[in-house]
Amino acid sequence: MISMASLRAALVLLVILAFVVSPYLTDGFSGFDPDLFPNPQRNPPVQPAGYAFGIWGLIYLWLIALAVTGLLARRADPAWDAPRAALIISLGVGSGWIAVANASAVWATVLIWIMLAGALAALWRVPQGDGLARWLGAAPVAIYAGWLTAASCVSVGLMLAGFGVTGPVAAALLSLALALAIGVGVQLRLGRSALYGLTVIWALVGVLVANLGDTPVVALAAGAGTLAMGWAIWRAALPGGSLAGARW
Questions:
Q1: Which keywords, in A-to-Z order, does the entry hold (predicted)?
Q2: Helix/strand/coil percentages in the chain, nearest 5
Q3: Does residue 170 form part of some domain?
Q4: In terms of residue numbers, what domain contains 178?
Q5: How far is CA 50 from CA 43, 84, 202, in A?
């Protein structure tokens, strides 16, 4: 008889594959259509530079590696099974996110926060240890959750500016503050998975680069956020301040 853990392991692989192929089954996604907002959002300062989105390739491949390893080598391991339910919810919602995002920025924002909640719940439950547990159990979830932390806050910024609640610069600054509050808080409370914080930094640097010329105040805020996130990684994930002891 197939165990529930084995079924969840198989379902994780299925939802990850659906998540990975979803851009090819839709029109893809290169940012919200500016005209989805009452105040069209063209080149919003809250959005990272285009190169930053290349991290999705790494996220896709690493999540597939997690799912395959979990199914073939760790399907009955309770430590590997612990985050699966949360991952299934997050990635299941994510598999339909692009189709929604191309039609409604409002609903896409709601869904990406559900994805983030699932990703963070999974991150808290990932297997601990070295080898497979660290690099194929915990690390893929860490970068997935880190990028969703940034992306969820970007969506909030687009909503604030797009619906006229604030101007685009104020929206970007508020979104950066929100991303930092979540990112620093998660990193400090988690006390491990430095790749989570490094992925948030990747997004912050993308915002910095995007705003260097036109919106220096946002670039400065993103730079300050990068330093704050780096401090959180050092404080939480580097016992004794030694890189050799980093809990990635």
A1: Membrane, Transmembrane, Transmembrane helix
A2: 75, 0, 25
A3: yes
A4: 4-26+41-245
A5: 11, 31, 12
C-alpha distances in angstroms, 116 versus 46, 104, 120? Answer: 18, 18, 6
Contact 175, 165 (CB under 8 A): no
Question: Across residues 61-77, what is the average pLDDT?
Answer: 97
Q: Is 49 contained in some domain?
A: yes
Both tokens of 194, joined, read: 């430095």
Q: Is residue 58 part of a domain?
A: yes
pTM, two decimals, is: 0.95
The string of pLDDT tens digits covering residues 10-60 is: 999 999 999 999 999 988 787 899 999 999 999 999 999 999 999 999 999
The label of the residue with tokens 């690099």 reads 135
Torsion 240-241-244-248 (CA) sign: positive
**Is residue 135 domain-resident?**
yes
Q: How many domains does the chain have?
A: 1
- What the block records as the tokens of 94 is 């994510």
